[in-house]
Amino acid sequence: MPTKILVIGACGQIGTELTMRLRQIYGGNHVIASDIRDGNEEIMASGPFETLDAMNKSQIEDICLHYEIDEVYLMAAMLSATGEKFPKKAWSLNMDSLMHVLDIAKEGKINKIFWPSSIAVFGPTTPKDDTPQHTIMEPTTVYGISKQTGERWCEYYHQKYGVDVRSIRYPGLISWKTLPGGGTTDYAVDIFHKAIEDNAYNCFLSEDTALPMMYMEDAVRATTEIMRAPAREIKQRSSYNLSGMSFTPKEITAEIQKHLPDFTISYEPDFRQKIADSWPSSIDDSHAREDWSWKNEYEIGNMVSEMLSHLK
Ligand SMILES: NC(=O)c1ccc[n+]([C@@H]2O[C@H](COP(=O)([O-])OP(=O)(O)OC[C@H]3O[C@@H](n4cnc5c(N)ncnc54)[C@H](O)[C@@H]3O)[C@@H](O)[C@H]2O)c1
């Protein structure tokens, strides 16, 4: 029997590209996209789509039963910057949706879950450079608190009920196909659009704010690889540190200027600076490398070239 997959939050920045990749791997009809809003044409035309509220457990259950779903990828969430504006809403969406999917797996109605965590699980007391897999975690954003709590629940459901849930702490994700959804690392996508449209960008973080980032190609491949790895290789049932590259606004500007020499940047840090300051600058992902052979393909140089060539 072919694997049948449900992607919840399929129309967001990651969900869009992940759904298309899963449809390439498993076949369009075996990957059900779902979201509370419609997606782009490609998503809507390349396989089944269901309007679904991730807060509604019986709706998720009905779709899982109807399509005989094996695996759920839960991508719906409220991200860091938006979460600070609506803390209670962020908490409800991020926690309720995860608990629903974990319970559906516990009840034996699905076999496997992918749920993304984030570098936001770390906080100002975490070692900033090469942040280890196991370290101090005192997140200060509601988004980070929801992701850390989510990690604890994932591990608990795995240990206690044998739920096969797998997770990655994504860094900031950079993509040209879809726009970011209200996070603190969004500048690293916005900068390319503005560079091409206006040759200038006003950055909401200061020039020397180093943050871990990853090109979407790598993030999607990491997601499909961790889900296809044999269960015995997945030793972290909270979530895996994952690293691609790390750079500051000043460094990415210099890289863009190699292609667009007249591009200029100005800096006007806002509330997101404080969030960025509480996060790691770089991540040690040796556990992912050892356990399920993770390896990034993109560094800042090939990422910037690809972003500019696609967006132009
Ligand atoms: N983008 C990043 O840089 C990044 C970094 C770390 C972790 N993550 C995590 O990856 C996941 C996906 O992030 P993203 O960047 O694609 O987010 P996004 O905001 O772009 O997409 C989220 C999607 O969820 C949908 N959604 C919201 N509420 C819903 C509900 N009640 N029911 C169903 N769908 C709903 C939205 O319509 C949207 O399409 C999230 O869990 C996020 O925390 C993202």
Tag the structure with descriptive keywords.
alpha/beta, Rossmann fold, UDP-galactose 4-epimerase, domain 1, 6-stranded parallel β-sheet, 3-stranded parallel β-sheet, 12 helices, 14 strands, 15% strand, binds nicotinamide-adenine-dinucleotide
Can you give a write-up of this model?
The chain is of the alpha/beta class and 312 residues long. It folds into 2 domains: 5-172 and 216-241, NAD(P)-binding Rossmann-like Domain (Rossmann fold), CATH 3.40.50; 173-213 and 245-285 and 299-311, Alpha-Beta Complex (UDP-galactose 4-epimerase, domain 1), CATH 3.90.25. The chain has helices at residues 13-26, 41-45, 57-67, 80-85, 87-106, 142-161, 187-198, 216-228, 249-257, 272-277, 286-292, 300-311; strands spanning 5-8, 31-35, 49-51, 71-74, 112-114, 117-118, 164-166, 168-170, 172-174, 200-203, 211-215, 240-241, 245-247, 264-267. It has a 6-stranded parallel sheet with strand order 3-2-1-4-5-7, sandwiched between helices. A 3-stranded parallel sheet has the order 6-8-12. Strand 1, helix 1 (13-26) and strand 2 form a beta-alpha-beta unit. Helix 1 packs across helix 8 (216-228) and helix 7 (187-198) runs parallel beside helix 9. The longest helix has 20 residues, at 87-106. Bound molecules: nicotinamide-adenine-dinucleotide. Residues 8-9, 11-15, 35-37, 52-55, 75-77, 79, 93, 116, 118, 170, 172-173, 180-181, 183, 185 line the site of nicotinamide-adenine-dinucleotide (NAD).
